Amino acid sequence: MDIVQIPTYLIDEDTDQPRYQFDEDSLQELMNSIAELGLLSPIKVRTTKDGRYKIIYGNRRYKACSTLGKPTIPCIVSDVTDELEIYLEQIAENLTREGFSPIEEADAFNKLLKDPKFSSSTKYLSSKLGKPESYIKNKCDLLKFSNAVKKLIVAGTEIKMDKLTELQVLPLKDLPIEYRDSLALMVARDELSVSDVKKIAKLFKDKDISDNTKTKLLYKSGYELIETWSVFEQNRVERSKQAESKTTIKVDKSEKLTPKQTPTDENTIPVPSSIPSAIELNPEPDKKTDIEPLHKISVQTGTEAVTEVLIDRTLQRLLSTLPSYSPLSDEVLRSYADIFENDRESFHASVKLLVDNLEKHLEQWKKVQELTQDQIAASGANVN
User: Fold this and answer.
1) CB-side exposure of 260: number of CA atoms within 13 Å?
2) What are phi and psi of 363, to 5 degrees?
3) How far apart are CA 21 and CA 154, in angstroms?
4) Euclidean distance between CA atoms 183 and 229, whole angstroms
5) From CA 276, how far away is CA 291, in angstroms rounded?
6) Alpha-carbon dihedral angle through residues 367, 368, 370, 372, given to the nearest 10 degrees
7) Strand, coil or helix: what is 57?
8) For residues 213 and 222, what is the distance between their CA atoms, to the nearest angstrom?
9) What is the pLDDT of residues 332-342, one digit of tens each?
10) Mean pLDDT of the region 31-35
11) Please, are residues 121 and 112 in contact by the beta-carbon 8 Å criterion?
12) b/e burial code for range 298-309 (CB count within 10 A of at least 16 → b)
């Protein structure tokens, strides 16, 4: 392909080209190189009707040469006239160059897809540029963010303060606009990792959290939001466990109501189906019966029979499941504030259920305590 020297004053920039951001430091470095070694790579131009030339690619090199006062610039003259082909060539060339920003890419792809002059498809661009369709779609999704966010988005994967990588912002792209931009700016400020951003995005996508609560969460820092997400996930696990526990209890009760075949194994404890649910604490001493008193059962183990008192067995079972008392710490009490508004009604109901059950237990066992004290006092009086 022939390279010709064209007077600088006959060359015009293409104001519609994909690349429009030029780093001043980088441009100065290029000028220093051209001043010392000359322009090593020619720019590409096309002819226009008025005998002038318009740049296809090489705007940065043209700027450097023009600033240095170069009278001519080495050029490759193209005879392509199709606007779509020219724009695709400009994109392809810039994709190989350092400094082509993600937002410049996004604007270029969006222009090809939305501009009636091109009316391209994602599939067509993918085939022409050698990029996956998902690559093109993700780039276009960056345009959902406000200008304040877009100007922070840079190429690469290194996380820096007040800068955003594509991987950092993409998890937020589908959030409502009232959350999306504020969270993106917070991510840039707090230098959050991609995994942390995904957690925050999950928190704000959760339909169980009210919009009012989500708005309040925007006032938290990134690290506080991660802590909130952790608490929320723990609460979710606990609720899931409680639901499973309730289901298990229902199944157990259902099984107990199902008639069972009398066991025949000599080591199996026979449970009479006629035992009432109430515990008979003081059976009449003169009452004659052919079976064991209802407040006792006989357990056959090998050749030895052991009589077990039902109320004592009930007491021991309760003591084994009831934890020792320890006061709730201030930290535990303060954690109530971390419960989301939609979950507080369920939490209050659980507390009420616990208190009601404890009060019923307390009332019943106080009666047992009074009964046993009376019997102990009566036994002592008889001995005296």
Assistant:
1) 12
2) -60, -45
3) 12
4) 14
5) 14
6) 160
7) strand
8) 16
9) 777 777 666 65
10) 94
11) no
12) eeeeeeeeeeee
pLDDT in tens, 255-297: 555 554 444 444 433 444 333 333 333 444 444 444 344 455 4
Q: Do the Cβ atoms of 46 and 54 come closer than 8 Å?
A: yes
Element (H, E) at 230: helix 222-256
- Torsions phi, psi of 185, nearest 5? -65, -35
- Model confidence over 183-231: pLDDT tens digits? 999 999 999 999 999 999 999 999 888 999 999 999 999 999 999 998 8
Q: Percent of the chain scored above 90 by pLDDT?
A: 46
- Identify the pLDDT of residue 285: 43
CA dist 25 to 91, 114, 219, Å? 23, 34, 37
> Could you tell me how far CA 168 lies from the centroid of its own chain?
13
> In sequence order, which ranges of 52-150 are alpha helices (DSSP H)?
59-68, 83-95, 102-114, 122-129, 133-141, 147-150
Look up the pTM and report it: 0.60
The DSSP annotation for 333-382 comes to HHGGGGS-HHHHHHHHHHHHHHHHHHHHHHHHHHHHHHHHHHHHHHHHHH
Terminal CA-CA length for the chain? 127
Query: Does the structure show a pLDDT above 80 at 36?
Result: yes
Q: Cα–Cα distance between 313 and 310 in angstroms, integer?
A: 5
For residue 253, what pLDDT band results from cuts at 50, 70 and 90?
low
Kindly state the tokens that stand for 325. 């008392």
Beta strand 72-78 with 304-309 is unpaired
Neighbouring C-alpha atoms within 13 Å toward the C-beta of 117: 11
